[in-house]
Amino acid sequence: xxxxxxxxxxxxxxxxxxxxxxxxxxxxxxxxxxxxxxxxxxxxxxxxxxxxxxxxxxxxxxxxxxxxxxxxxxxxxxxxxxxxxxxxxxxxxxxxxxxxxx
Amino acid sequence: xxxxxxxxxxxxxxxxxxxxxxxxxxxxxxxxxxxxxxxxxxxxxxxxxxxxxxxxxxxxxxxxxxxxxxxxxxxxxxxxxxxxxxxxxxxxxxxxxxxxxxxxxxxxxxxxxxxxxxxxxxxxxxxxxxxxxxxxxxxxxxxxxxxxxxxxxxxxxxxxxxxxxxxxxxxxxxxxxxxxxxxxxxxxxxxxxxxxxxxxxxxxxxxxxxxxxxxxxxxxxxxxxxxxxxxxxx
Lengths: 102, 234
Description:
- Chain A is built from four helices and no strands.
- By secondary structure, chain A is mainly alpha-helical.
- The relative contact order of chain B is 0.17.
- At the A-B interface, helix 1, helix 2, helix 3 and helix 4 of A face helix 3, helix 5, helix 6, helix 8 and helix 9 of B.
C-alpha cells in the first residue's frame, strides 16, 4: 500500500458518500411547490424503471421471459421471495433449454 | 417539508433486524460478486488491505469494478475519483425518496444511515416505506447487513481464486435482475405509473448503448419522472 493508493481510495470513498448524502441534504432544504412535489413523487419509480429496463434488455430472451414471470408472480402473489425464485428458476430453465443470445 | 399529522417515525433495533432480513435474498449474489471482485482486484495488484479498505470506504459494486478498470501505475487519482463520482450520481436521485423517514431523525443518524445506502438497500427501504413502515432503522439494518457481506467476501475473494464460473453456472448474474424486477413490480401503483416508467425504461435502454458509465440511469430516471410530474401538475 502506497500513500497514493491510500489517497485514491479515500477520495473515491468521499466522492461516493457525497452522492449518497447529497440528494437528501439538498431535498430537505427545498420547500417544494406542486411541480417539485409531483416530480419527487415519480422519482423512485422512474429510478427503478431506468435501473431495471437495461438489465432485463441485456439479459437476452431467457432474461426477458424470466422477468415477465417474476413481475407477474409479484403482482399476483405479493410474495417477494417467491417472485425472485420464480424469476431465477425460469431463467435457468429457459437458458438450459437453449434460449440464449440476443 | 411539513410533518403535521405524520405518524411517529422510529429508529429501533427491531426495525434494523427487519432491514437485515429484507436484504438477505441479495446475499448470495453479493457474496458471488464480492468474491469475483476480490479475485480481479488481486490480479490488478491491490493488496488484501487495499481491497478491504476500498470495500469499506466506497461500498459500491459498480464503482469498484470501474475503478479496477482504471487502476494502473502511476495511479490516475483524478480519473479514478471522477469516474467513481459519475457512476454514483444516481444516488443523488435516490436520497430524496427517503425524506419521509430521515427528516425525522437526528442528523447524525440520518447521515450515518445514508453512508450504507446502495441500490438494493434503497429499494427495499422505499418498498417498506410504501407498506407504511415507520421504522427508519430498517435502512441502516439493510445497509449494515449488505456491508458486512460485501467487505468480507471481497477480502476473501483475493485469496479464493477465480470463482466467476459460480456466477455464470448458478445464474447468480441474473439474481440481481430477478431481485430488482420483483421490487419494481411491488412499486406499481396503477396506470398512472405506465407513462413515466415506459419513458424512464426506454430512455435508459437507448442511453445505455450510447453513453458511458451509469448516465443512462440518471437520464432515464429524470426524463420519466419529469414526464409524470408534468402530466400530474398540468
